[in-house]
Amino acid sequence: MDAVNPIPVQWKKEQKVFEKNLAILRQKLNKEAIHDLRVAIKKLRAYFELYLLLKKKEDLASVSLDESLHSTEELFNTTGRQRDVEICLEIITELKKNPAISINQLSLYLQAILKITKAWTNQEIHRYKNKELRKIAFLFKQELEFSISIELEQMIKRAIDEKIGMIRTYFKKPHLMRKNLKSVYYWLNLINQSEKYQPPLLHSILDDLGSWQDHDVLLVKMKHFRKDYLPKSFDEHAVLKELEKNILEKKSNLLRSAINKTRKWLKAIATV
Prior knowledge:
It contains eleven helices and no strands. By secondary structure, the chain is mainly alpha-helical. α1 (6-27) packs antiparallel against α6 and α4 (70-95) packs across α10.
């Protein structure tokens, strides 16, 4: 029985989410809309990446993922600068619940940066033309012969299995590990019997890796502020230095947890 290609279906769904949040942000910057816009871009990129992997035609030999989504990636990266600062402030808010931790200077520094990154986001949001996504959506409409294929499900599963087969090589590169596992997580939406791949455990791994990355971003900004701006005579200098050690330990624990869960996950899906 022929199966409808789910890639354009999911693409259209996420394109609507993207355009909805883009419209919201053009009216007023909103933290939740920024997050939802960026998640939509991640999914759009993942689905288009898979589409290109499955296509073997000569006319797509020169199609580049990065070039096809160049402006959209610029939007993603610019909004990411604001999102990084917001995440840092969220973590700091939690840390400051401990009365022994006084990091008001770092908070003021990040609040100042947030104003700048919001201005960048606003500029990029209004400059973005949204031509790329519509062009790719039109491409999907033209590919009628690819829309239905009895082999499609197996092709997608093979692509998922190939990406999973590379995961162990990223154990020392958490950012790439997370990026590739995210693609797998999104691709699972496209197939039947995705429970074989244990999405809940995969989601837990991604949570650990996401928290690892959030703390990594904070650590980088914290070190930069302490070393390049904060006077050593300030009490906060010593507080931050000690806090950096704690964050390093937190990162180590998160990565260890993610890798242990990933080993368990890989073993589990290999036996199904």
